[in-house]
Design brief:
Elements: H1 3-12, H2 22-26, H3 35-40, H4 42-48, H5 52-65, H6 72-76, H7 87-90, H8 98-104, H9 114-126, H10 133-139, H11 141-144, H12 149-153, H13 157-162, H14 173-186, H15 189-194, H16 198-206, H17 213-219, H18 228-232, H19 236-240, H20 244-251, H21 265-272, H22 276-280, H23 296-314, H24 320-334
Helix pairs in contact: 8-10
């Protein structure tokens, strides 16, 4: 590029953008904006710029303008630009209010890399905040799966009870168990039976994926009409250990939906362990169970008796009744 061309490019950099339009942000001059322009037009830029490279330009200009980091108010207007930030940049953000946390975690701006989500929540907590119901709702389930177990264990019982149902199906088994340890206290059995609202019951069932076998057995006597997706998502060992009557008690009014999932691995394994005669009692046409062992020997013994009788006759020997008749005939002839 000639010196003149370079000067032309530099001269093309505007001192002010005026009204931000799609034409403006698509112009090559965008890459040589001053930090001051980005500072003045931050909200408009972050709202309309969706190109990754341009978003990185915005973050770089902000780094130049605020070398010590961004305030809560500035972080709140980053929108989707936040998703291309480096770990180093995130570490310099102020994340001290629930509004900032909610703005960063807005799913409309894209998903977070788990490591970055963990840093954001950790920074929020390090500012002296707790994970209350509002905070849990803002973070959402998948991002909570990125946190250390010690953080989840510190969630207050009432916070979990008052939060929306958190989607944690993608969490590890250890994380699910940590959630359940809190939920078991937040939703005691007597509360579930008498006081829980429909929303609380939905929220409560979300955490049963981490429940132990004995707890699931106790639920079969509570009549909670467990959601079928919750049942399928239970720990595999907890499902396989359930009898037909216990499954019926767990699902209640949702029992008929079990037929829909009969081809899933968890259901096929469970069905294969049950007596077909017990499965028939459910009345939903589940097949593939074991044959009742009490009926098998009868069939075998009958076949054996017929075989032995036929074999004896072929060798010239006869059953006892015929021998008795032959004896009577012999005596009559002798007389």
């Amino acid at each position: 590029m000639s010196l003149r061309s370079k000067r032309s490019t530099v001269n093309a950099c505007p001192d002010s953008l005026g009204n931000i339009t799609q034409v403006t942000i698509s112009n090559n001059a965008f890459h040589c904006l001053s930090a001051q322009v980005v500072m003045d037009k931050l909200a408009s830029l972050t709202e309309k710029v969706d190109d990754d490279d341009m978003q990185k330009v915005i973050l770089e200009k902000l780094r130049q303008a605020y070398p010590k980091g961004l305030s809560d108010q500035q972080v709140q207007v980053l929108g989707s630009v936040s998703r291309v930030a480096s770990m180093e940049q995130i570490n310099k953000w102020n994340i001290t209010t629930v509004d900032t946390l909610a703005a960063l975690m807005d799913n409309g701006n894209g998903e977070w890399d788990s490591d970055k989500a963990k840093v954001i929540v950790t920074k929020f907590l390090s500012a002296g905040n707790l994970l209350g119901a509002s905070e849990l709702n803002s973070i959402g389930g998948p991002n909570l799966c990125a946190l250390d177990l010690s953080v989840l264990q510190g969630i207050r019982n009432d916070s979990l009870r008052d939060a929306d149902a958190l989607e944690i199906t993608s969490c590890s088994s250890a994380h699910k168990k940590a959630f359940f340890a809190v939920a078991e206290i937040a939703f005691p059995i007597n509360f579930i039976q008498t006081c829980a609202t429909a929303d609380q019951l939905t929220s409560y069932q979300t955490y049963l994926g981490g429940a132990i076998i004995t707890y699931i057995r106790s639920l079969s006597r509570v009549n909670i009409s467990m959601d079928i997706n919750t049942f399928i998502g239970l720990d595999s060992a907890a499902v396989q250990a359930r009898s037909v009557s216990e499954v019926s008690g767990l699902l209640g009014s949702n029992l008929n939906r079990l037929k829909t999932f009969e081809n899933t691995t968890v259901m096929q394994n469970w069905v294969s362990k049950q007596l077909q005669s017990e499965l028939d009692k459910l009345g939903i046409s589940l097949t593939g169970g074991r044959v009742d062992s009490n009926t098998t020997p009868m069939t075998t013994n009958t076949a054996t008796t017929i075989k032995n009788t036929t074999s004896s006759q072929s060798r010239g020997t006869y059953p006892a009744p015929l021998l008795f008749l032959f004896g009577l005939l012999f005596i009559a002839v002798q007389m």
